[in-house]
């Protein structure tokens, strides 16, 4: 299959929307990462998503809609708390889990009785969804296990030849996925940290404690148990000052390993090393978030043996950054 690249003009978006109506897969930009969209009411179309990504079938997909009034079409009820969350954070980098009314294809929800709903805050992405007239099931548009795509080029790297088209909307603005929140209970539960911070949610309501990772056989966000965001070469997080970081670089280098580093601009200035990706200033973690997945895709195992990455404060957007980095490193961390 030839994967067509679409610009963001109206005619191209309409053409891409027509393909989705026929059951094809189209990657589209959102403010978080690129999504791989299919008709959420068609089992056949949704199955293609799992095939193209190599995604485990017990990991449910988020349903994307263009406008708030559409949410009620797919859920049993919108409890008052959920109503407030929707008012505050949608459209935006926020996904709400509600009880499903069964209108969405069961493959989308992986057999759960809940459905995840999101309204992307991206003009072209939303326009595309609106043009299809459908609810759009969309995971991140990457091969399962790899970092999510923040540029059309990343989508093409992973899925060229496997999908009908990509709408190129340039680089995404947030750079990390949406915050997934269970809105079925009395208090919201954050199942995946993301673009909307815990602090922002706490400003409008208390939050219930999040379930521990891999705590039970039936995790609330099933996707959380799989490997994610993996760079090409093995990665270790380095938690310490510049001196400690340099020591770690030197240790690997002296064993003959080719070391790559992912670091903030501030740390990068203090390090002496050959292969380094500067992911933005520590004082502006939003910028680090924007560049993070590009950083994880940057080094190929043909070029380097090991990637050493800086750690960040587990606060604000830093929480989502550390969540992704920890998974990318498969929990490997060196502490001073
Ligand atoms: O920003 C985003 O959320 C992007 C863009 C494309 O919208 N999408 C995205 O989708 O990150 P994906 O498939 O990579 O991640 C969806 C997450 C998974 O962890 C999945 O397990 C969880 O949402 N999820 C989906 N439906 C769920 C449900 N009914 N209950 C609990 N978790 C659910
Ligand atoms: Mg994903």
Description:
Residues 10-196 form the YrdC-like domain. Keywords: ATP-binding, Cytoplasm, Nucleotide-binding, Nucleotidyltransferase, Transferase, tRNA processing. Its EC number is 2.7.7.87. Required for the formation of a threonylcarbamoyl group on adenosine at position 37 (t(6)A37) in tRNAs that read codons beginning with adenine. With 336 residues, the protein is an alpha/beta fold. The chain has two domains: 4-202, DHBP synthase (Alpha-Beta Complex), CATH 3.90.870; 235-334, Rossmann fold (3-Layer(aba) Sandwich), CATH 3.40.50.11030. It is built from eleven helices and 15 strands. It has helices at residues 10-21, 43-53, 80-89, 106-109, 123-132, 152-159, 198-202, 242-254, 265-270, 285-298, 317-328; strands at residues 4-6, 26-28, 35-39, 62-64, 94-99, 114-118, 136-137, 165-167, 179-182, 189-192, 235-239, 259-263, 275-278, 306-310, 333-335. The strands form two sheets. Strands 1-8-2-3-7-4-6-5-9-10 form a ten-stranded mixed beta sheet, sandwiched between helices. Strands 13-12-14-11-15 form a five-stranded parallel beta sheet, sandwiched between helices. It is globular, with a radius of gyration of 20 Å. It starts with a strand and ends with a strand. The site of threonylcarbamoyladenylate (TXA) has 30 residues, from β5, β6 and β10.
């Amino acid at each position: 299959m030839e994967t067509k690249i679409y610009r963001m003009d109206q005619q191209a978006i309409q053409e891409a929307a027509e393909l989705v109506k026929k059951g094809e897969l189209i990657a589209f930009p959102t403010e978080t990462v690129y999504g791989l969209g299919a008709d959420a009411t068609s089992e056949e179309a949704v199955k293609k998503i799992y095939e193209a990504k190599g995604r485990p079938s017990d990991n449910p997909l988020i349903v994307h809609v263009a406008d708030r009034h559409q949410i009620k079409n797919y859920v049993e009820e919108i409890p008052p708390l959920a109503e407030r969350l929707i008012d505050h954070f949608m459209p935006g980098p926020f996904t709400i889990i509600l009880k499903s009314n069964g209108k969405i294809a069961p493959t989308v929800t992986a057999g759960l009785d809940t459905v995840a709903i999101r309204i992307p805050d991206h003009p072209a992405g939303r326009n595309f969804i609106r043009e299809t007239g459908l609810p759009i099931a969309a995971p991140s548009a990457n091969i399962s296990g790899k970092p999510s795509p923040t540029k059309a080029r990343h989508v093409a790297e992973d899925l060229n030849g496997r999908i009908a088209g990509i709408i190129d909307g340039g680089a995404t603005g947030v750079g990390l996925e949406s915050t997934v929140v269970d809105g079925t209970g009395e208090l919201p539960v954050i199942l995946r940290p993301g673009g909307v911070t815990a602090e922002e949610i706490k400003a409008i309501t208390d939050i219930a404690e999040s379930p521990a990772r891999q705590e039970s056989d039936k995790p609330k966000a099933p996707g959380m148990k799989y490997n994610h965001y993996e760079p090409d070469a093995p990665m270790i997080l380095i938690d310490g000052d510049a001196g400690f970081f340099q020591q770690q670089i030197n240790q690997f280098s002296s064993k003959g390993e080719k070391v790559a580093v992912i670091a903030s601009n501030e740390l990068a200035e203090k390090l002496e090393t050959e292969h380094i990706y500067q992911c933005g200033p520590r004082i502006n973690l939003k910028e680090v978030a924007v560049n993070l997945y590009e950083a994880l895709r940057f080094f190929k195992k043909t070029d380097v043996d090991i990637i050493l990455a800086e750690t960040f404060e587990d606060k604000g957007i830093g929480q989502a950054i550390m969540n992704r980095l920890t998974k990318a490193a498969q929990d490997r961390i060196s502490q001073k």
